[in-house]
From TrEMBL:
Domain of life where this protein originates: Bacteria
UniProt-listed InterPro entries: Amidase/PGRP_sf (IPR036505), Amidase_domain (IPR002502), PGRP (IPR015510)
PANTHER family the UniProt entry points to: PEPTIDOGLYCAN RECOGNITION PROTEIN, PEPTIDOGLYCAN-RECOGNITION PROTEIN LC-RELATED
Protein name listed in UniProt: N-acetylmuramoyl-L-alanine amidase
Domain N-acetylmuramoyl-L-alanine amidase: 1-134
Molecular function as annotated in GO: N-acetylmuramoyl-L-alanine amidase activity
Entries under Gene3D superfamilies matching the protein: Peptidoglycan recognition protein-like
SUPFAM superfamilies: N-acetylmuramoyl-L-alanine amidase-like
One biological process term in Gene Ontology: peptidoglycan catabolic process
């Protein structure tokens, strides 16, 4: 089964920039929010993750963890989950160079797999009143998917 995908939705975990969290932390937060995965999907991928809503999580060191199966409907963008894939970056608005590289590589691969897919930030979806993922995805795409100034962990700006 290949469910039709119209959008890749980029999220941030809204955690302190640079602080380590992993997929199990997000699974716990999503359990507390009332999310629950179907048992059949859990049996196919990441059985231990009973609640995670995202398909991918990008750690501060650039490692990428899987959450839901790509054919499994996510729980990350209310009203849009059926046709989207959710990618979450640990942090809020400044990400490590390794995270930016993993995001670039992951999105590039998914664009090839799902021809014509649109890449958006969570905040870009209609009726979403959030700053997530903490940067402009349109600007990131226009910048050849390179890290955006002011959004790189450890980067300093004099006078700001």
């Amino acid at each position: 089964m290949n469910r039709p995908i119209s959008h890749l939705v980029i999220h941030c975990a809204a955690t302190p920039n640079g602080r380590w969290h992993d997929v199990r932390d997000i699974d716990l937060w999503h359990r507390q929010a009332g999310f629950r995965r179907n048992q059949n999907w859990r049996a196919r991928q990441n059985e231990e993750l009973g609640h995670i809503g995202y398909h991918f999580v990008i750690y501060t060191n650039g490692a990428v963890a899987t959450g839901r199966h790509l054919d499994e409907v996510g729980a990350h963008a209310r009203g849009f989950n059926a046709r989207t894939i959710g990618i979450c970056m640990i942090g809020t608005d400044r990400f490590s160079p390794a995270q930016w590289e993993s995001l670039h590589n992951g999105v590039s691969s998914l664009i090839v797999r799902y021809r014509g897919v649109k890449v958006v930030g969570h905040r870009d979806l209609p009726e979403v009143k959030k700053t997530c993922p903490g940067f402009s995805v349109d600007d990131w795409l226009a910048n050849q998917m390179q890290p955006l100034p002011g959004h790189v962990l450890g980067e300093t700006h004099e006078g700001k």
